[in-house]
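FAQ: What does the model actually see?

It sees only this:
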Amino acid sequence: MNDKPHLDEEALAELKDVMEEEFDVLIQAYLADSRSRIESLEQALSENNPDIFAKTAHSFKGSSINIGAPRLGQVCFEAEKLGKAGALEQAPAVLEQIYTEFREVQQRLENFG
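And it is asked to produce this:
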């Protein structure tokens, strides 16, 4: 997992060129959506619902990869696999990795330039 960068700056630069003045709106929407997805993961874990956990992790993975956050996408993929396997006993550790990586991505996106 650690071989992937926090941000794919080349992809982000291309996205910024395409989106122009809407780029900041896109970033803020991604960050807000990500916070919501993290809350959904927490809720699915607290309710011991592996199906919702897997589906939420899957959609979070996709949005993270699309925005240029491949490492966060990889951690979400690990969470998705746990949900699909019904192995939520291991999920708290992966959720902690998601928190940590999201904070890193958030900081880098806010400073991207």
